[in-house]
Design a protein that fits this description.
Strand order of the largest sheet: 1-4-3-2-5-6
Distance between the termini: 44 Å
Number of strands: 9
Largest sheet: 6 strands, parallel
Helix content: 25-40%
Number of helices: 10
Shape: globular
Length: 282
């Protein structure tokens, strides 16, 4: 695996790869990699020639400076993991490399996607996400980019940005990786104690209740039942739970045949904020 720390070095490497008309897939990450991240590389592998991982803890998507400070950066371990899945190139830039002085103000109209769910609870977060992802897309010019379904709203935001900026990049959405009990793998879940991980299973239990009863209950009944599951565990504090239309993430009050929906949830366990989702088709 080749490691580059500057845009110039990376572009030199990529110019040779492009001349060979190879399919380039970018996997943007903030590091602290785990099985969920590694699944992205395996998911992309059959349709790509060259995989590029970027590791960059992006300051513009943190609304809490303490969160940014606390974010884990186990780079040696990350490098070992990337080598184990056959990643070809790692781009490891500094903040100064990605945000030079006199950086122009970034603002993109994401509509309601910027204001609901994660957008409401983390103001400015998706502006920061789109800012850095656009920089990476502009630099790498990949044919494909791979993201995890785990951050479903983020994927819809990136899709919206591709449309706005008219970028010809295919999004690969990798299914959520769960442990044997159903807990979604994430760097936040890794901060939980064993008891916390057990309590966190309440999130997926409530989402699976919705999926299992989709055909015999109304949206109102589905949400009531799912919220009752959450309420039965005093260790879990619900922030939001909703059934939404897939692309806009607008909450719905009834389901229509042939449409795609997603169940979204955010909750707190042991002072750690967790999100999860489940795809629903009707």
């Amino acid at each position: 695996m080749k490691i580059f720390r500057t845009k110039q070095e990376l572009q030199q490497e990529l110019s040779g790869i492009r001349k060979e008309n190879k399919v380039i897939t970018l996997v943007p990450t903030m590091g602290a990699l785990h099985e969920g991240h590694l699944s992205l590389f395996n998911y992309a592998k059959p349709s790509t020639d060259v995989t590029i991982c970027s590791i960059f803890v992006n300051p513009t998507q943190f609304n809490d400076p303490k969160d940014l400070e606390k974010y884990p950066r186990p780079i040696e371990n990350d490098i070992d993991l990337l080598e184990s899945v056959g990643c070809d190139i790692l781009f490891l830039p500094s903040v100064e490399e990605m945000y030079p002085e006199n950086e122009p103000q970034w603002q993109i109209d994401l509509g309601d996607l910027d204001r609901i769910w994660e957008g409401e609870h983390r103001p400015g977060h998706f502006q920061g996400v789109t800012q850095i992802v656009y920089k990476l897309f502009d630099l790498v010019k990949p044919n494909q980019a791979c993201f995890g379904q785990k951050d479903f709203q983020q994927v819809m935001v990136i899709q919206r940005m591709l449309e706005i900026k008219n970028l010809d990049i295919k999004l690969l959405i990798c299914p959520i990786v769960r442990n044997e009990k159903g807990l979604a793998l994430s760097s936040r879940n890794a901060r939980l104690t064993e008891a916390g991980k057990e309590n966190a299973l309440t999130l997926i239990k409530s989402l699976r209740y919705i999926k299992d009863n989709l055909d015999n209950k109304s949206v109102e009944e589905l949400l009531e039942g799912a919220k009752a599951i959450i309420a039965s565990n005093p260790e879990v504090e619900l922030e939001y739970l909703s059934i939404c239309e897939t692309k806009s993430l607008s909450p719905v009050t009834k389901l229509e045949e042939g449409k795609g929906y997603v169940g979204l949830i955010a909750a707190w366990v042991e002072n750690v904020r967790l999100i999860d989702n489940i795809l629903l088709s009707h």
